[in-house]
Amino acid sequence: MRPWNRLTLIACAGLLIPLQGAAQAHGGADDEITREEVEALAEEVGEEVEQSGAQQSDEQAMEQEIEEYEAKERLIGTLIGGFVPYRPTYILPYTYVDSPNQNPVSPRLGEGDYDTNLQDEEAKYQISFKVPLLTGMLDDRTTLWFGYTQKSFWQVYNTDESAPFRETNYEPELFVRHRLGWDLGPGELNAVAIGFNHQSNGQSEPRSRSWNRIKGSIAYTYNRWLFMVNPWYRLPEQDSDNDNDDIHEYLGYAEYIAVYKWDDDHVISTTLMNNLRSDDNRTSVELGYSFPMGERLKGFVQYYNGYGESLIDYNERMHRIGIGIMLNDWL
């Protein structure tokens, strides 16, 4: 593990100071956070992370990765408005799809074929962050977060059709997470979360897709493994507003994530979904591998096989492989 450099933490604290006005507006003059206070917190967090790094063993590797991540959250969370990395953020300048979904279909809206001819090659990227809310109003283990994830598919090489964005999925959410740190079996139960999740593609009919969910999460670590189970319940909609009422038949009711980090720079991840049906069973899997590429960047290879990579393709099996750079990994 690369322990945080204390000077780096203090520099981060300095970058957060311009957000002080937002914190004052939230908490009043009595809650003013000075540069000295933030730098003191940076010193404290730096000492915690350095101590954990010095004690790292293979059995504790992922637990200490979680501690480092939570230390970053505590530092940035001292001021309302601080952005924290959430899900992976990456850019895949080149991906190949064996058969693009030229004619997406939904039960209510019917066919929504594209006016353009889609190419097999396109770019894909994802950005994801979260912002702490109600800082200091809950106990030190419980935080209210606003999260946002955006995933886009860009026909950048399709110059004959003016290189259009084929699909973009917008996913804002509001959730409460509680840190546990419970020893359970050979590993540790780290945290649980629950909240409201909206996902839509922002398109007009007949290619409109959206759904609202109550979504939970539970995280468990063991050795260099991180395991997450994210179950959800879809909130009912009126038939006249439901663009994809059969989405559960393809994506099921949860996603299952496993992440293995065997050193500072190499990470393998797997995300699995299954509709849990004995008849017409459908499984989707996403595999990712990130690796060092120079001193500051990480390369990233991703493979997807299944349904729901994007909302427009929720009921169409896709096979995709792409290569690019990872800007923010799972941990």
Automatic annotation (TrEMBL):
The active site is at residues 198, 200. GO terms for biological process: lipid catabolic process. It comes from the Bacteria. It holds the Pfam family PLA1. One of its GO terms (cellular component) is cell outer membrane. Keywords: Calcium, Cell outer membrane, Hydrolase, Lipid degradation, Lipid metabolism, Membrane, Metal-binding, Signal, Transmembrane, Transmembrane beta strand. Its cofactor is Ca(2+). Belongs to the phospholipase A1 family. This is Phospholipase A1. It comes from Marinobacter segnicrescens. The lineage of its organism: Bacteria, Pseudomonadati, Pseudomonadota, Gammaproteobacteria, Pseudomonadales.
